[in-house]
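Internal tracking record. Fields below are filled automatically when a chain is submitted to the structure queue. Please do not edit lines marked as system-generated. If the sequence contains nonstandard residues, flag them in the REMARKS field before resubmitting.
Queue: standard
Priority: normal
Entity type: single polypeptide chain
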Amino acid sequence: MKTVKFGIIGAGLMGREFASACARWCHLTEIQARPVLVALCDKNPDIHPWYRNNFPSITQFTDDYRQLLANPEVEAVYCAVPHNLHEQFYCDIIRAGKHLLGEKPFGIDKQANDAIMACIAAHPDQIVRCSSEFPFYPPMQRIGHLLEEDFFGQIIEVNSGFLHSSDLNPMKPINWKRMIEFNGEYGCMGDLGMHACHFPFRAGYIPRTVRAVLSKFVTQRPGKDGQMVPCKTWDNATLLCDCEDPLHGAVFPLVIKTQRIAPGETDTWYFEVKGMKGCAKWSSKNPRRLEIMDYRGGDQAMQQIDMGYETAFKTITGGIFEFGFTDSILQMWASFITEITEGKPKGRFVSCVTPEEAALSHRLFTAALASWKNGTVEKV
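SYSTEM-GENERATED OUTPUT FOLLOWS
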């Protein structure tokens, strides 16, 4: 089996999830390549022991990402750092000749993203993708197949979103995601938005204009010393976009929601498409439940399908069992490894976010900021 030797820059929450996916790579049954962790960079030394204890393949531990990039063993990098570091880190990774899977939003703002895109264009031999696990859930894969078959007919409306309530408590201490200098002016859009945009963009639903409503409910939070400090980022965003149906030509509304303060939601992704011939919707609140309506006249009936473990990349898990978040991470990484080793994705809806899709999200979020500021409908 081929191997791809990886370094991790930013070894916290999602770095551990990637490492865990590497450890259970045997779960996949048909893929012809695997990642091997060989290097790790994080400024917090308390993170290192977990990796040392579980991954003897890692021979380099450093707090300087440039040392990791100078390591000739490292072929590819997973980078999970605050948004303000994306431009410098991502460009340095690409210039070092490493493949990159980076966290969203690929730059703290559009200017930073433009620089990253220019660097990618100057180094076409590197595979560069953005992280988003959303489409790899089995119901979303089924919706992707339905879109390819034109099951829905002319599109009436599409709704996509990412909701959670982790910031509902106003006394939760501030972290970097609530600091504009680290997270950026986009706020919740930069942190959550790519997940909600991934599937609509891949379906060809490209926003032409946007009318945004942005909300800031908590304006200050406790700092490290317990004193209240300003909290400047947007908590919630609702974007009303108009798109042209790529198959049928009509214009329809696309509504994208990203919310950090959504009472009752722990971590909910959802997607809904309504068409003249069919409808479908899914929410991670019930991750195996897919709802479909096939309308050919007469009564309208929404069918509920409890899907099992039906994945793009086959695994040892029996089809009757339930799919979860760590499974979606494994599927996403299988997709990225496939692109590195085979030069193309397994399918249209079986691939990570492309740099072009990340750049489109920046155009959308930049227009959304202008829309809210000016009370206008803005071109994307």
